[in-house]
Amino acid sequence: MRENVAVQVFQMPQLPELCGGADSISLPVEVSAGDYEYIAFPGFFDVHVHFREPGFSYKETIASGSRAAAHGGYTGVAAMPNLNPVPDSIEHLCEELEIIRRDAVIPVYPYGAITVGEKGEVLADLEGMAPDVIAFSDDGKGVQDREKMRAAMLRAKALHKLIVAHCEDESLLRGGYIHDGAYAKAHGHPGICSESEWGPIARDVALAGETGCGYHVCHVSTKESVEVIRKAKAAGVDVTCETAPHYLVLDENDLLEDGRFKMNPPLRSKEDREALLEGIRDGTIDMIATDHAPHSREEKAKGLKGSAMGIVGLETAFPVLYTRLVLGGVISLKKLIELLAVNPRRRFGIPYRGEYTVWDLKKPVTVDPERFLSKGRATPFAGWQLMGECIMTVSDGKTVYSRD
Fold first, then answer.
1. What is the C-alpha separation between 298 and 145, in angstroms, rounded?
2. Residue 291: which CATH number?
3. What is the pTM of this model?
4. Residues marked as catalytic
């Protein structure tokens, strides 16, 4: 950074458990960029990314994904297990751990799979992997069998680990690939119904209440899902959830016949988006994760019907959310930092060790995918005019990203 530039420090809240037992530091009640040119935030933590390695390094690598995360202000991420080999045993997990040790520029915490090969048939070696994984998930696939999920929850509870669920009832998909709403009907696309998401969530929160297992729901996208989780929390179930930036600022009315608008779950209705925003405001939705899911150009160049599902998000998350939600008057800056940095660490037991990211909030930026550090380029935000540029990110005392 240039000399003699004012920097406002946005501090972590009073959470000693996040500070490794160190003295807590206070968070201002109200935070504004004010006249400061730069503002320093605690490093963000994303509990849901796909770094594709081992197995699919043509899409992304640990090296490129972690650099992209640092560019987006993240100082820690949790990597999903839909890899080859799937980390369903300590032997398979070690392949991923070795790459992380060698190539990651920020801490990358792997998930262990719930079932062998993420096939939903045989439970994975949860006990063997537990010391080296952040939690257990079959993300990319929903666990279809109720009793299999119940058994997984009992074992995860004994290991003091969360079950993190991609909730999708495959019997209700019927070939759909975008939301079963007005756009799908108008353009002749088969749709994905909302029940395919909220139905499994309702099943799982009942199981979590029965077993006492800590349960976290991935990428919530429907109004019914928000209500199911809200009621479960009120009933005392140990459940948290996330949504993603694109579900908060886009809906089916923004769809184009372009693969960069195709993700799973899909962009839903305006009513769903409004329910998600209310869930953010009232605390039903605990955190925002990107579901960063890079694919090759070829895989995303086949329109809504033929493209792979997934978009990149690490390098656009904060500017999109700051511009549309904070400057748009939907939530405060304090609330956004809680969603991106504080709540993820609290829920997943990740200590805060003084890592930080510095932003110029008054800098206008145009989203240009060709400038991403990720190998992925597919984003629905291409060309958007936003506010906020990452100046630098520091992790473990090292500058892991610098604009200069």
1. 34
2. 3.20.20.140
3. 0.94
4. 291
